[in-house]
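hey so u asked for the seq, here:
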Amino acid sequence: MVVLLLAIVVPALAAPALAASAAPQMKAEAAVEHSDPLNFDPVVRDAYEHFYVLDFDGALSRSGAVLKAHPQEPMAYGYELMFTVFRELYHQDLLDTTYYAHDSFLTSKRNVPVSDATRQRIEWLTNTGIRLADDRIKANASDKNAYFARGYIRGMHAAFITLVDHSYVAAARQGYAARGDSEQVLKIDPLYVDAKMAIGIQKFAVASLPRWVRLLVGVMGVGGNKERGLALLRECAAHGVVTAVESRTVLSLFLRHDARYPEALAVQHGLAVQYPRDYLFRLEEANLTKDEGNGPGAIALYKTVLADAAKPGYFIDPRVQMAWFGLADTQRGQNDIADAAENYLKAAEQPNCSDWLRKRAQLNAGEMFDLLHQRARAMQLYQMALSGGGDQSQADAARRLLRTPYSGK
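ran it, structure tokens below
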């Protein structure tokens, strides 16, 4: 359910596409008529190619050049905003979908420390891009590219405040404003395929949410339809200019939500094969295999990802703690308690591990050592998860486990 709530407030939770291999199936000259011409700029394409392998700095250096060359184009701010937001989310270990697999995410006490400079950059890009789009729409109410850019920027900002600040209501407003912009685009140009993504996401999500969650984010009275949402996403996946990969990623998430694992895995495997050096796509295939209930298969995939991560230069800045944590979780599910304990510790030991994930891994490792009847080691790890400063989201659980050993229930 959490993934669905995120879909309501965030029109995207994955990398958008612009690679030639993910380009629309229509003729190039026809595609240009139904998308912002800037999307076809060679430097923009190159920026996305770096983004696909999580080379955020490489992507940002190129989007920065695009922004400098096109300071009056709202979409230029959208590219820069997306790369900036997703770089921050990645470095905060917030792009591992296992984090959103449980409703506890909604009440998490996790504090995400984002530098003032990064926050200011994100707000400036958001406000400037929206202002430029507003100005263009005031000058020409039929400017479809301005509507799309404004919705795109709103969606990126919604992603940031949702995942970093847990500002669900504010993000929901932005998400629905983005959907409204997309609907306006399609009124002007029904063949502007990219605009269908935000609508498809929210049609599926709204149809799946219980009443209390609709009340929580203020979406009562908004219609939804799962199959129509999936159909729109499939159309974007096949023909989108800047939403093809993104739509495939969301399709995988939604199919996973409805336990349609073979379909979800087919989509995710295709992404992993197309972008074998995208660490997140590879990791997500392992996560999905775990969720399907294929523990041995998931363990093999996690180990393959970790082996590739050990090859110099294969992945750029792989957050291997996420793979170690996923591997440990799967081994735990297979009752391989000793290996799970060891691999939770490996996750916690990674030098670029966020304080939140480190303490989460320490807490889980402590539970494993309790099951192994190594109480002293377990208590040491609970104390580490409880340590002052930094993230405190595991503190209550750690205190409880210091009083009462974990029993596996």
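The mean pLDDT is 86. DSSP finds 20 helices and no strands in the chain.
lmk if thats what u needed
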